[in-house]
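Isomerase YddE
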Amino acid sequence: MNNIKVLHYDAFSPYPNKGNPAGVVLDAAHLSESDMQSIAHKVGFNETVFVVSSDVADIRLKYFTPGHEINLCGHATMASLFALKTKGLLGEASSVKIETNVGVLPIQFSMDKNNHILIKMKQDQPKFIEFNGDRAKLAHSIGLSLDELEDDLPIVYGCTGAWTLLVPIKSIDSFSRMKPINSLFPEILTLLPKASVHPFSLHTLDPHALMHARHF
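Predicted structure tokens:
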């Protein structure tokens, strides 16, 4: 466990500390799952991804939050594949297959007009489950009042590899006031206590965006 190099990548943004941070360990074959969990806890990002060999794909990715392993993580996948590609560890390949806990998924690489690497990944088939918990307690857990939740859209658990609770919000003004009380989540998310919480609005700051969101 000594001298483990954890790379820090900010996915979905070209600007340092403006994207979604992920830890990446490129050579994790010698690490046990308990080692990986300990490293992810020390790193403290939402997810840290570990690259290991695979018998059924080009590589296998294992994802850990500070508290437990998860089956799939989009931004950590982007971070690890960008690291592997830019460091020359995937050669000239325009596509690879990655093994995850939800199965083998295809990844495609291309270049934009500015010679930046573009990465396209396929996630798991989407699944949804209705939220039947206490809406007022849910609003409180993210620092809002009940009347700030959108009445015309359902609150549902969604999954394309990792479960999150999709919470529609009426006004974009509410997002700056959100202060999550993460310790309350498990008792509110009784069906899936390890799920994350994803408040979103169909009102946006950027006219080209489809929605505005935060993630806890």
